[in-house]
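job 3f2a | input accepted
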Amino acid sequence: MKRAVVALAVGLALTGCGNADREKAEQLQGEVSKLRSEVVALKAELDAEKHGAQRLLARAKDAKAAGDNAAAKSGLQDLIARYPEKSEAITAKSLLDAIEREEKAAEAERLAAEAKKAEEARAALARLDKNLKKNTDEIRGITWVSHKSIPTLDTYMSLYFGLEGENSRVMPLRLKLQYHSDSWLFVQSVTIKADDQTFQLGSLDFERDNGYGGIWEWSDTVAQNKAMLRKIADAKKVTIRFDGKQYYNDFTLPDAQKRAMKDMILAWERYGGKA
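job 3f2a | predicted structure (275 res):
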């Protein structure tokens, strides 16, 4: 009841006020609102001053725990710049130093790992070189790299590649298939089965020659399917079918030729070839 009476009285008083009084009241209300906003801002500043360093330190620690060193360092540096006299700043400096030491150690470890990998690559290439045969074509400026174990007068599957120019630019890996016998097969296509996987090489251009009581039919192409070559080199059993004009011949790839293929793939990559 009292509230109703007071409200009524205020209403009557306002009604009785003139325009000047209403403007003054509105101005006072605006100033009160402004003061309230300033009070809220000051409270926020006081709260930030009181707890800001703690929050920045906590956020930086969370970032470091999450593996985000960049965010952690940024937060720690901000803390030190804004609150240099706070005890949290001392903790921040210590944590920042620890992060930088960790990063330097990680970088040194990365460089050491890269150096070790490079040294292992050089050592592997040196071991491979003992099994490689190199013939240089002086006219074309190409050094052909093949495996020492590949026979000449026999049936085989082999890989080789060229190194071209003064900078020894590595050329594409090449696949050579040769059928050797005492009678012509007139090979037209080749099918290879490596363990449980079969590869159809399709129609290939075979060249032919004969002498020394035997014949040779061979195909020499760019090795397009690197995954197939790796599968063949790693397989326990590999059967190569030379499909001729009327007949075919199955050849079981010897383990020595599979090892030679592995060596050549590795050598090609070591010289800069990319699958």
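job 3f2a | The chain has six helices and eleven strands.
job 3f2a | closed
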